[in-house]
Amino acid sequence: MSVEIERKFLVKGNAWRGKAEGIFYRQGYLSLKKEHVVRIRAVGEKAYLTVKSTSKGASRVEFEYPIPLEDAEYMLNHLCEKPLIEKKRYTFESGGMTWEVDEFFHENAGLILAEVELSSEDQSIELPSWIGKEVTGDSRFYNSNLIRKPYSKWTNYSR
Amino acid sequence: MSVEIERKFLVKGNAWRGKAEGIFYRQGYLSLKKEHVVRIRAVGEKAYLTVKSTSKGASRVEFEYPIPLEDAEYMLNHLCEKPLIEKKRYTFESGGMTWEVDEFFHENAGLILAEVELSSEDQSIELPSWIGKEVTGDSRFYNSNLIRKPYSKWTNYSR
Hints:
The structure is a homodimer. In chain A, a hairpin with a 7-residue loop joins strand 8 (97-104) and strand 9 (112-117). Chain A is mostly beta strands. Chain A contains 2 helices and 10 strands. At the A-B interface, strand 5, strand 6 and helix 1 of A face strand 5, strand 6 and helix 1 of B.
């Protein structure tokens, strides 16, 4: 069990590109509830089943288990809600912090998000120049919600 | 991944008692969908997370992963739908087959089910004297459905 404290931002421009090789993620959900989700994720040759509580306010609780890639592929193709999330993740250091930039494809093409994990809720961070608007806590940007309402179908969103 | 072919029966009388020590099961569901369920099960000191497809007609597909008991307890207590299923399982041989008898408690007290796993759908089996009505495929007896409609609340069921 782990507890995550994260801040999430839109990414502007391309100055972040070239800082890391992207790794391809393919993920879907067996369950998408208000209280918690059950996620299947294939990352390169590895795969994971993750249970994440999504209770607002409090920090989220997460349980992650490695599973055989073959199992994950079956569940992604046959059991998970469609569309799947397909994205490349670029992980690198900037300003003493580890940033994860997710570049989405297919139904969510055009969306690029950056996340940073904090050790406490009031930790100060230095924002790189390519960091745009903060979207921490905006549930539209949760990967789980990008399945039911993909970015390409949003209207009235000022990017 | 495994595929299960099972037949399920009501149990009558007590002639099956004493054939095995019962093991206590405590289980709940993170997700209960028509197509598949995600189950958390604690059995003695062990625990498992299981994904089961529930598609009718075809045999069911099942993925089971051992998880730490501590994780299972957290998910059972905080994330799974209530009430939980609490039962004792008695496993023993009879007529060359392995029988599992589940004796339910709490909201499902009074219900005792016997299951036998077959190697093919047309395998013949010898039914012990304590086997009652067959309920294979009767979805009311699925553990997942015994949460939303516990046995103690059934009306109009001829036992």
